[in-house]
Amino acid sequence: MNRSDPRPHLASHTDSTAETQLLRPVLHWNPGMLVPILILGSIVLVGAYAYFLQLRDGLSVTGMRDTVSWGLYITNFVFFIGISHVGALLSSILRLTGAGWRHPITRMAEAITFSALLFGALMPLVDLGRPERALNLLLHGRIQSPILWDIVSITTYLAGSTLFLYLPLIPDLALLRDRSQQLPGWRRWIYRVLSIGWSGSASQHARLERAMGVMAVLILPIAIMVHTVVSWIFAMTLRPGWNSTIFGPYFVAGALASGAAAVVIAMAVFRRIYHLERWITVEHFRKMAALVLVLDLVYLYFNLSEYATTAYKMELSEKALLLELFRGPLAPLFWFTQVFGLIVPALLLVLPPLLPALRRRWILCSVMASALIVIQAWLKRFIIVVPVLEHPNLPVHDPASVVGIYQPTWVEWSITAGAIAGFVLVYYLFSRFFPIVSVWETEKAERAEVPEGQALRPRLSPAGEVAS
Amino acid sequence: MAACFRVILVLGLALARPVPAHAHAQGFRVAVSRHGFESMVNYELKVEAGHQVTLDFSYADDDLEDDNPHEIRVQGFGLSLPSIVVSRSQPTASLTFTPPATGTLRILCVVPCLGMENLSGALRVIRPRSTGRAAQLNLELISKEGGAVLAQVQLTDEAGRPLADEPVMLMRRTVLGGDLVLGSPLTVADGTAAAKFYALEPGTVEVVAYYAGGGGYASAEVRQVISAVGVSMDHRPSGLAAPTAPPVFALALIIVVGGVWIAYAFVVMQVVRIGRESRKESDP
């Protein structure tokens, strides 16, 4: 292919095409974008200050003590790792099955994976109190310890997710390289370096497809492996509440549900702020809603299986924990996660096609359901981590006499808020540096569907209604 | 910073049997410093169940330049007791409560501090002593097949007459110093009661029989030791507890993770080749 053509793979399009519209958030920065950056950045700074205090004064500034030694940080860790699954799930499965509707949302999902993993991997270090001691895992790690498996699998997953995000980005980076003459030099440099001289030749495409094919096959089992290993940090112990055989699939199901829900929220937000109505249509929300519904119901089933089997027997060591969850101080939290975090979202996702009044509210319903599922995901991780530690009930303990109390301090809440804000900030900045919808894949899909010479038209109404 | 995060491996006696609260106050003064609870012998105090206990804590880190506050908690039996803080500005504090049953209450400082890791201890709540006519307990331990041990006890009065329908607590001393309840059978007409248990590990096993007294009889306690042969079984969990990783497991892990990283290398190689092709194309 001729290098002199700056857009060889998109040569037939005009400025009104996907290229221009999808690149607008990247190429045209405005003062308005500073608002979310300042707000999120401020929260991150508060979190950073709290972490500074924790580094200076030690873990005594947290609510963690000897009995409850894992709190919000490990909750965040499991939550972020869970959210990160969505990139692997959506991109990998949809890519392998050749689902054409995936193009506008795969990069959103992959970027969520990357951002969530960054902050997920950070949380155990924050939890350490003495972060330099993480090196001990490398120097003196025991290969039979789930903690070491965790480090290995998360590192592997982070590397894989970065590759999985980067590969389909290369043609768009080349596009940005060629369209960024008016941008500052440092941004042009970034695009030039990252685009590795992509010219869009047939052999380059072949290599890229080959690499993406390998990653698509690879990333899904890695993602499942990672969250299984995360669950094994708990399940490989004898602690009642964690000593479960279904924790692996249970965690994976919860991760996939929360991750898919996070993508739905991202779709709605980007659709609104970047005016992507033409590419992210109601049909996408309907398809994602179906996916989220299935994952939500699967997770509900796992919850039922996990709690019903233990509650039916009420084995002595489990009893104190279960009673606290079912009707003790944590009951509101537990029942919120079950009812408002899983059952109500399922109804919100099921009802729109059944009720005429909700038929035009697909997006609203799916976003509300997704928000509830994401909130549920965080609370559920808290319920899994903390109450079990408050009721250790190990063989060496007298079950009635050892009860830990955990009340997170403002330091932990600040670091948690900082991590969540940081995750959103990285995600937002990504969308400002790189197209959040894959331009080359979208145009390729549109070209494949529209007869040559015919103008590209949206197949579905951008107003959010289903076209007949 | 040394931490007070030390899990105390004290086993609760967990004798669920509530005891009557008849008053005699038990008071202890405990000086708290970074070196530990200085008035506690082996970090353990013995108190009688059902009697009020007052612990007077005093701050003993005055030799330090900086304040080294201690937040002390007494935990156990589901008691909801407030935390006690002693520091330079608040050098004394006290805690009064009544342990409702026998067992072990944990007493520990929950603030990571400058001090040693042994700022934790136990309040061993022992059985209250009844008074009255003497009761006698005889305990016999009989080795059975398959590692089983039969603990048989006979309760009589001072004249040797059997006492029937009286509860006798049989407990096994654990390696960590606690008592594991084997059973609380009622004596039958000849004053005997028994409980069977398995001694899984070879070695000496100490069994305690305890009669709480009442009905005009004083409490009584007797101990007996038996040398157990143990049960031949591999019951220890492998995996995490293993000193070294099982080779098959390590190999599997290396193959899986190594395979993934090799695949990554292949992908990275494709990216590198894409870059090389571009450079070739751009060369005149």
Main sheet record of chain A? none
Estimated radius of gyration of chain A: 24 Å
| Large-scale geometry of chain A | globular
Which pair of chains forms the biggest interface, and how many residues does each contribute? A-B, 49 and 52 residues
Structural class of chain B: mainly beta
- Helices and strands of chain B, in order, run as EEEEEEEEEEEEEEEEH
- The number of E-state strands of chain B comes to 16
Strand content of chain A: under 5%
Poorly predicted spans of chain B = 1-23
Described by strand count, sense and barrel closure, the largest sheet of chain B is:
5 strands, mixed
Low-confidence stretches of chain A: 1-15, 395-401, 452-468
- Relative strand content of chain B: 35-45%
Helical fraction of chain B: 10-25%
Order of strands across the main sheet of chain B: 3-9-8-5-6
CATH names the topology of chain A as Formate dehydrogenase/DMSO reductase fold
**Count of alpha and pi helical runs of chain A:** 18
**CATH homologous superfamily assignment of chain A:** Formate dehydrogenase/DMSO reductase domain
Mean pLDDT of chain A: 85
Helix percent of chain A reads: over 70%
